[in-house]
Every structure is written in structure tokens, then in C-alpha cells.
């Protein structure tokens, strides 16, 4: 019961804060419009690159254009959702350095919701739109004998994928708290080069987390279930039921991320900055 | 003043574990005691100044009182709540103003930040309207409500921040450097407002500051902290006695002479024919001057009263010498 209230509290706080950010971004209308278009353009170019490749060859590693589009659309849509909801969590490092993180801790709302909604930006809808368009094309173009389980699996993949990516964002934020702590302590003793030492948390938060860690659960976002839908052999010879394991993997990832977040927050509260 | 202890600290400690790099991958662990066994109580409706040099443990104490940090040892209660365990419940009952960082929304009109507080703290509509009206009136915020926060001056923003911290009727208000960087008029406005809030609503106020005028004008009680320990807790006037305050006699002699001998006064500085003598504030300056005039070729003299800053600096011990040099 208490857990459920905390969840509702969190969602409410998230909505309030996200709304404030949307209104803030609207005060710079031109800038908003330009970034939305820029975002669409940049992410769109990704897919154009794939199109260009297929204009030269008929298949990529044995996968047709529609099949690649299916994989691409699934992961981009899932990532886009997570990015929209929690994409600004790497602001956390900066917030902890300038001390404004403390102001979140004196509010009557869950910290995770406040950090998640921080710098909420509607321009990120661009990525989701682009992913959904590609996915839509793939669903029409791909040569699949649609059975009931296969149809169900598509939305399941998107939702589980978004949950898995979200978990990675949260875990990355938790890691930033630890990294911040380490950098802070080093700053206190090595007066020179403080600027340099301030970078690792952010750099780790973004590139390490986005680049490396996403690869592991990514298998469950699309590779394994998509292989089932497309009737292709599994990446590393997994049993067939693993195609339906995505929600389970997502749940485990979220639980682990929640745990990491709690641990991180507790370490902050007992360490300070 | 009521007698119920609203804020209670009993042997509260905060130890930070710092890891010092001693070589490649090698680390030494060391413990830093930022707050060392502090005990005090603050009654409901009191206004208390909490002062000390940078790094003395002021902020750490405030962070523990607001639930931002968890104490390493000791017992701590605010309004009967253990702050670190029930952070969110406590949030409804406290207001916090961080002087150096705003909690207002930079790009939005001031009123939008207040609307967010209204909803986030679930303030009943009637209460919110009443409070807002009163705060706007007391803090002169009327013409500012529709102005984006980024366009406000520092003083206006501080007033805006203070109002934001009071909309939900907190029983205690923590102010961390509320007058830092403000001009004289803004400072006076903020102080006057705090006095009024305290008188009108009985809000308990705990403020940290570097500006001792804040304390002189607002607080009946002052606590001085240094190296994590409470050095003094009592009325401001009492600081002079505890600090064994001294007055300074500056004398100009006809020529350069060896330091004057006139106990209990002692020479603290010599610069050519000018000498500075410190003597206990309780001693008569007239007697001392007469004695010196009888034995030395005196040209001119002046007496300097101890100021509260020098007194506190003296309490900080190692900083005493530096402060005296600054006084002279």
C-alpha cells in the first residue's frame, strides 16, 4: 500500500515537474521548433545511412531491408520512450556538483521522480516518431506469417525495451552518485586539475552506460524476440521460450536499478558533498 | 516564548569517510569529524543565529536537520520527526532557503514557481491564496509575479525564494546565508520581513550567516560552531565575556621606541613610532593612558572598541592573530 502511494506520489511529482520544464522550453519558441526539427533530422539520417547501404546490396548479413528496419524501429522506439521519460538523468552529476541536488531532497516528493523529470524535453518525441515510422514501415514490408503470439510480441518488445533502457538510465544515475563521491574526494586533496576530475562522472554516465551497458539487455529488447517473429535462428542458440522472456528481463533490470538507486542515494546521504 | 523543544540535538555527530589517494590505486582511508557531538535544543518560535567560519560544520548541521544527510551518531528530532528517516513527511513542516542557489524556475514567471509549490505541497486552495497574498504584501512582490525569474535582481529573487519557502506554512525556517550579496536596502527588507514572520506566525527561524548584523538585528540567541564543536550558545551580548574581548589602544610616540611596558596591556604591533596595545575590555583606558603618558613621549592616541567579529574570531583561536592584524 505504502509502495503504491509512493509510486502515485512519484508519478504526480513527475508530471508537475515535467510540465514546468515544457513550459520553460516554450518560452524560447524558435529554439524549441529548431531543436525538434534538428532532432528529427539527425535521427532520420541514421536510417538513411542504412537505406544507402541497401541501395548497393540486397541484404545485410543475410537480413533484408525490412528485417533490419524491424530491428532498428523496435530499438529506436523503445530507447526513445526511455529517453523521453528519463533521458536527463545525466544532469544529476552537475546538480550534485553545484549543490542544487540538495534542494530536491527537501521537497515532499520522491527524489527519483524529481531527477527523472529534470530537464524534461518534448523535443525527444522526435526520436520516438522516427522509430515508430520505421517500425510501421517494417511491419508492413516484412515477410512474416503473423500468428497471435507474434502480434502480441511486438508491443511487448517495445514496452519491455523501454523499461530495460529506463533501468539502465537509473542505474547510470546511481553510478554517478558513487563516481561523484569519488571525484569530490579527489578534488579535496588534489587541488590542481579539478576541472579534469569533474568530467569522469558525466562521461561515464553518458558514453559508458549508453555504449556498453545497453548492449547486454539489448539482446532482449529485440534480437531474441525479433528472431522469433522473423523466424530466424537465435543469436547464440537460446531455447525458444526466451523470446517471451523480455518482460521478465525488464522486471529484473528495473528491480536491480531501483536497488542501485536506493543504495546510491543512501551513500549520498551519509557522505555528503 | 514557549518551552517545548522543537529542534532537539543530542550528541549528534557526522563523520565523513574520505579516501586519500596515496599512490597509483593505493588509497588511505581517513575519517573527518565535520560535526562532533553537538547538543542543543531550540524552542518553538525562537530565532537563532548559527555562525562559524567556513568548514566549521554549519552546513553539515543544517543538512542533517533537513534530512539531506544522515547523522553518524546521536539523536536528532525536528518537530518530533527523525529527519533522515522521514524526509518527505518532514518536508511539509520545514522551509529551506539556500542563499546561494535559487529554487525558483529560471525561465518562468515568479507566480508559476508558487503554483508548483501549491500543488507539490498539496496546500489547500484557501490557505495558499491567503498565504500568497500576505507574502506578496510583506515582501513587495506584487509587480514581480509575472516577471520571469531570470529577469529579477538578486534581492528580488531572494525575496521570491523566501516567499516560496513559506507558502506551505512551515513551522521552522532554515536560512542559509539569506542576505549574501544583497545591497543594504534589500538586507533591511529581508530582516524586517523575517522579524514579522516570526512575530506573526511564531515560525522558528534558524539562520546561518557571515553577516553578523543579521544576528545582531534578528536573533536573541546565537550559537557559534568551530571544528564541528559548539563553542558558544547564548545571548549575543554574552559573547564579549566568553571571548575575553579586548580593546585596542593605539599610541603615537615622538620617535621609535622599544615596545611599551604597561601590564596588563601588551603590545601587539609596532610600526615605527606607532604602537598597538591590547588590554582587557573591563580595564579603564584612562588609567592606562595616564601611565603611558607619564613614562613615554606621547603625541597622539585613540581607543578602539572590540567588535563582535573580532570577538568571534578570537574564539576561533588560530584565527585570532589574523583578525587582530585586520583590526589594526
Distinctive features:
heterodimer; A: 273 residues; mainly alpha; 11 helices; B: 328 residues; alpha/beta; Rossmann fold; Alpha-Beta Plaits; 2 domains; four-stranded antiparallel beta sheet; 13 strands
What does this entry look like structurally?
The complex is a heterodimer of chains A (273) and B (328). The relative contact order of chain A is 0.13. The longest helix of chain A is centred in the middle third of the chain and has 42 residues, at 148-189. With 273 residues, chain A is an all-alpha fold. Residues 182-213 of chain A have low confidence and may be disordered. Chain A is 79% helix and 0% strand. Chain A starts with a helix and ends with a helix. Chain B folds into two domains: 5-240, P-loop containing nucleotide triphosphate hydrolases (Rossmann fold, 3-Layer(aba) Sandwich), CATH 3.40.50.300; 243-327, Alpha-Beta Plaits. Chain B is 33% helix and 30% strand. Chain B contains eleven helices and 13 strands. In chain B, the strands form three sheets. Chain B has a six-stranded mixed beta sheet with strand order 5-6-7-3-8-9, sandwiched between helices. In chain B, strands 11-12-10-13 form a four-stranded antiparallel beta sheet, with helices on one face. In chain B, strands 2-1-4 form a three-stranded antiparallel beta sheet. In chain B, a hairpin with a 2-residue loop joins strand 8 (221-226) and strand 9 (229-234). The longest helix of chain B has 18 residues, at 184-201. Chain B starts with a strand and ends with a helix. Chain A binds chain B through residues 13, 16-17, 20, 23-24, 27-28, 98-100, 102-103, 105-110, 182, 185-186, 188-190, 266, 269-272, and chain B through 14, 16-21, 34, 60, 63, 66-70, 72, 84, 87-89, 91-92, 94, 96, 98, 100-101, 103, 105-108, 112, 116, 119-121, 148.
Interface with most residues:
A-B, 30 and 38 residues
User: Can you tell me the residue ranges of chain B where pLDDT is under 50 for at least 5 consecutive residues?
Assistant: none
Q: Helical proportion of chain A? A: over 70%
Give the overall form of chain B: globular
Task: List SSEs of chain B in N-to-C order.
Answer: EEEHEHEHHHEHEHEEHEEEHEHH
Instruction: Report low-confidence residues of chain A grouped into runs of 5 or more.
Output: 182-213
β-strand percent of chain B reads 25-35%
What's the name of the CATH homologous superfamily of the largest domain in chain B? P-loop containing nucleotide triphosphate hydrolases
Mean pLDDT over the full residue set of chain A: 78
Amino acid at each position: 500500500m505504502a509502495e503504491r502511494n509512493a509510486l502515485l506520489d512519484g508519478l504526480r511529482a513527475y508530471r508537475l515537474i515535467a510540465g514546468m520544464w515544457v513550459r520553460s522550453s516554450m518560452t524560447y519558441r524558435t529554439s524549441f521548433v529548431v531543436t525538434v526539427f534538428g532532432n528529427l533530422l539527425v535521427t532520420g539520417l541514421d536510417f538513411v545511412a542504412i537505406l544507402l547501404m541497401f541501395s548497393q546490396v540486397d541484404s545485410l548479413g543475410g537480413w533484408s531491408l525490412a528485417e533490419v528496419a524491424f530491428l532498428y524501429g523496435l530499438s529506436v522506439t523503445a530507447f526513445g520512450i526511455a529517453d523521453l521519460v528519463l533521458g536527463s538523468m545525466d544532469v544529476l552529476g552537475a546538480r550534485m556538483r553545484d549543490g542544487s541536488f540538495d534542494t530536491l531532497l527537501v521537497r515532499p516528493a520522491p527524489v527519483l521522480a524529481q531527477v527523472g523529470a529534470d530537464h524534461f524535453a518534448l523535443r525527444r518525441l522526435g526520436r520516438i516518431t522516427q522509430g515508430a515510422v520505421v517500425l510501421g514501415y517494417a511491419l508492413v514490408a516484412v515477410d512474416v506469417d503473423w500468428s497471435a503470439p507474434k502480434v502480441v510480441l511486438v508491443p511487448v518488445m517495445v514496452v519491455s525495451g523501454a523499461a530495460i533502457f529506463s533501468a539502465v538510465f537509473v542505474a547510470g544515475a546511481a553510478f554517478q552518485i558513487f563516481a561523484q563521491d569519488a571525484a569530490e574526494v579527489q578534488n579535496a586533496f588534489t587541488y590542481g586539475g579539478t576541472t579534469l576530475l569533474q568530467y569522469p562522472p558525466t562521461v561515464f554516465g553518458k558514453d559508458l552506460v549508453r555504449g556498453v551497458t545497453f548492449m547486454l539487455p539489448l539482446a532482449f529488447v529485440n534480437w531474441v524476440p525479433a528472431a522469433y517473429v522473423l523466424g530466424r535462428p537465435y543469436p547464440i542458440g537460446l531455447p525458444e521460450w526466451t523470446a517471451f522472456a523480455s518482460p521478465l528481463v525488464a522486471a529484473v533490470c528495473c528491480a536491480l536499478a531501483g536497488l542501485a538507486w536506493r543504495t546510491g542515494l543512501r551513500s549520498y546521504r551519509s557522505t555528503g558533498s | 516564548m514557549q518551552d517545548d523543544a522543537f529542534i532537539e540535538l543530542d550528541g549528534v555527530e557526522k563523520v565523513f569517510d574520505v579516501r586519500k589517494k596515496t599512490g597509483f590505486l593505493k588509497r588511505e582511508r581517513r575519517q573527518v569529524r565535520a560535526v562532533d557531538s553537538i547538543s542543543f535544543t531550540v524552542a518553538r518560535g525562537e530565532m537563532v543565529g548559527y555562525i562559524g567560519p567556513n568548514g566549521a560544520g554549519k552546513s553539515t548541521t543544517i543538512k542533517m536537520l533537513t534530512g539531506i544527510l544522515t547523522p553518524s551518531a546521536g539523536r536528532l528530532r525536528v518537530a518530533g520527526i527523525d529527519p533522515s528517516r522521514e524526509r518527505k513527511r518532514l518536508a511539509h513542516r520545514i522551509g529551506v532557503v539556500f542563499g546561494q542557489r535559487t529554487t525558483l524556475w529560471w525561465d518562468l514567471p515568479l507566480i508559476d514557481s508558487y503554483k508548483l509549490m501549491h500543488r507539490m505541497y498539496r496546500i489547500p486552495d484557501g490557505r495558499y491564496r491567503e498565504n500568497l497574498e500576505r507574502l506578496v504584501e510583506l515582501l513587495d512582490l506584487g509587480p514581480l509575479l509575472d516577471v520571469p525569474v531570470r529577469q529579477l535582481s538578486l534581492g528580488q529573487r531572494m525575496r521570491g525564494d523566501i516567499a516560496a519557502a513559506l507558502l506551505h506554512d512551515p513551522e521552522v525556517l532554515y536560512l542559509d546565508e539569506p542576505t549574501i550579496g544583497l545591497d543594504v536596502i534589500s538586507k533591511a527588507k529581508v530582516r524586517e520581513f523575517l522579524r514579522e514572520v516570526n512575530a506573526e506566525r511564531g515560525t522558528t527561524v534558524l539562520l546561518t550567516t557571515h553577516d553578523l548584523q543579521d544576528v545582531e538585528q534578528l536573533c536573541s540567541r546565537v550559537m557559534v560552531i568551530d571544528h564541528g564543536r559548539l563553542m558558544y550558545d547564548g545571548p549575543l551580548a554574552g559573547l564579549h565575556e566568553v571571548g575575553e574581548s579586548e580593546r585596542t589602544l593605539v599610541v603615537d610616540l615622538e620617535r621609535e621606541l622599544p615596545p611599551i611596558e604597561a601590564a596588563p596591556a601588551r603590545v601587539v604591533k609596532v610600526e615605527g613610532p606607532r604602537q598597538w596595545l591590547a588590554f582587557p575590555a573591563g580595564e579603564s583606558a584612562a588609567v592606562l593612558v595616564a601611565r603611558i603618558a607619564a613614562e613615554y613621549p606621547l603625541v597622539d592616541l585613540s581607543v578602539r572598541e572590540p567588535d563582535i567579529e573580532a570577538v568571534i574570531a578570537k574564539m576561533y583561536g588560530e584565527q585570532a592573530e589574523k583578525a587582530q592584524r585586520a583590526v589594526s
